[in-house]
Amino acid sequence: MKQKRQIIFLGVLVAIAAVVWGSQWKKQTPSMQTMSTIENYKVLAVENPQIRWQELERAQKTEYKASGRNPFSVIAPPPAQDPHKSKPPVIPEPTVPPPPPPPTEAKLPPNLKYFGYGTVPEGSPRRAFFTDGDDVYVVTEGDTLLGRYRILRVGNASLEFQEISSGLHGSTPLEEQAGSPSA
To answer: What does each of the 183 residues of the chain score in pLDDT, given as a tens digit?
Structure first.
């Protein structure tokens, strides 16, 4: 009985495959669509596709003559001078202000505040406390802060640090925050 069901099931599958294959046979294949596109192609009208050697040689022998204009300058060249005309007024060239001098001292970002320090017993280095909004950072002397600043010395009134990328030294004072009024 089981083998009979399998044979019937196989026959149904073959019938379904034949119906699907037959319906797809009537449709155009992509290669047939491409062929119709190629058949409808119109060639461009070119009089003579040969290389014109005389024109090529003439173009190669042409010598460049400068007009006096610098193509890399935004300032227009002066017009050609006629000896019978008076000289045009001289227009001064725009001056570019010099770049600002490089900084001599490193600064912490304005949102980063040094608000305290502390020590752990038994002679360990001091620790500095920083705040950045709701974030609080605790950094030991010699460690880096935010990957940009190395803490050199934590003092009672100020903190000395070095910006790692430039090597510039800087200091920042201890910022005492106003306490809330007592009731």
So the answer is: 789 999 999 999 999 999 888 877 666 566 656 666 777 777 777 777 788 899 989 999 988 887 777 778 888 776 666 656 666 677 777 788 888 887 778 778 888 888 888 877 777 788 888 888 888 888 888 888 888 888 888 888 888 888 888 888 888 887 876 555 554
127 beta partners: 118, 140
Report pTM.
0.42
DSSP for 77-124, written as a single string: PPPPPPTTSPPPPPPPPPPPPPPPPPPSS----TT-EEEEEE--TTTP
The one-letter amino acid code at 138 reads V
Q: Hey, how many other C-beta atoms are within 10 angstroms of the C-beta on 117?
A: 17
